[in-house]
Fold this protein.
Amino acid sequence: MSEKANYGTELIVDLHGCDAKILTNIHSIGKFLDELCELIGMEKVERYWWQDLENEEDHLAGISVVQFIKTSSITLHVLTRMERVYMNLFSCKDFDTTATVNLIKSWSRGTVKTSIVLARV
């Protein structure tokens, strides 16, 4: 099978030890997504939220957001009690992965445990 053209980049970031006050603040999360889209030069389309802060299981209690962008999507899972953030950003348009990781680290005040960049072909 021959390799096709690069269809974009996917950035996967896992952060631990994040600031719990930020993780439960919907306005902070929304502002972060706005700043992220501006940083990477992406046009926002639709944003969908799912919130379950009362779940008995710590690994399920939190907020999930899908921010559709003109070139694909950003998915953010915030586990409030575990003080963790999991983000996937996929775009057909090039973006600065280092600056993106720095922004999410600065916003969440967490420690990057995983940062993976995949070229989608």
The beta strands are 8-16, 44-52, 62-69, 72-79, 84-91, 111-120. The first strand starts at residue 8 and ends at 16. Helices lie at 20-23, 26-39, 97-108. The chain has one domain: 8-120.
